[in-house]
Amino acid sequence: MRVSDVLAAFDAVIELVRRAVLALAAALFVVFAVDWLVRTRRLDPFGAVARFFRRVVDPLLEPVERRVVRAGGLPSSAPWWALVAAMAGGVLLIVLLQATRGLAAELLTAPRSVRGLSHLLIAWVFGLLRLALLVRVIASWLRLSPYWWWLRWCVSLTEWMLRPLRRVVPPVGMFDVTPIVAYFALWIVESLLLNWV
Predict the structure, then answer these.
(1) Rounded to the nearest 10 degrees, what angle do helices 178-196 and 114-141 cross at?
(2) Where are the alpha helices (DSSP H) in the chain?
(3) Which of 177, 186, 180, 179 has its CA nearest to residue 128?
(4) pLDDT tens, N- to C-terminus, the chain (197 residues)
(5) Chain centre distance of CA 80
(6) How many Å apart are CA 179 and CA 140, to the nearest integer?
(7) Which residues is 175 bridged to in the sheet?
(8) 19: closest CA among 99, 83, 93?
(9) Which single residue of 4, 66, 111, 114 has CA 20 to 30 Å from 137?
């Protein structure tokens, strides 16, 4: 199988997933809009539609509603937050597929020399470190605990560089700028390594 065939298959899968995510987002928008209308009593609360949504959709949205209420929001906004979470999940899936396609393209087209493979390995390691920094920053914006099992990997990959930077780089107001400094430091070190190897 040729490299172009493999990459074309990746492209076809990514396009299919994009269309599926778009269709799902449109369907969820309609469902969550109706659920919001039921929750805010803009639809008859005793009608068949309202009873159906309270029986079928509301139990599915209960975890989102609990999180929204704990954060100080209104229970009626749970459908919109669920829509945002679903769309973010779809975008994340597409980004991961595109990253996988990029990694496959790099691996399949990399020169079969020691230098080419070392360049590829350096690029992957620093790409993973930058991804861990990005995930950690987004998790801090969403006030997610860094001790959750699915966030521990980014903490363990980044804490070794952020801890010493926090001692040197002061916060700007209430913002911790050490992830930005670490991101640029990783970029500089990667460039130096790629030029050296």
Answers:
(1) 180
(2) 3-39, 48-52, 58-70, 78-109, 114-141, 152-168, 178-196
(3) 186
(4) 687 888 899 899 999 999 999 999 999 999 999 999 999 999 888 899 999 999 999 999 999 999 889 888 899 999 999 999 899 889 989 988 998 888 888 777 777 777 778 888 888 899 899 989 988 888 888 778 878 887 888 989 999 999 999 999 888 888 889 999 999 999 999 999 988 87
(5) 18
(6) 11
(7) 172
(8) 93
(9) 66
Enumerate residues 6+ apart whose C-beta is below 8 A from 159.
none
CA–CA dist 161, 74 (Å, integer) = 39
Query: Token pair for residue 70?
Result: 């704990």
At 185, the amino acid letter reads A
- Cα Rg of the chain, angstroms: 22
Would you say 39 and 76 are in contact if contact means Cβ atoms under 8 Å apart? yes
Could you give the CA distance from residue 37 to residue 95 in angstroms, rounded to a whole number?
32
Instruction: Please report where in the chains the tokens 């001790």 appear, as a residue.
Output: 147
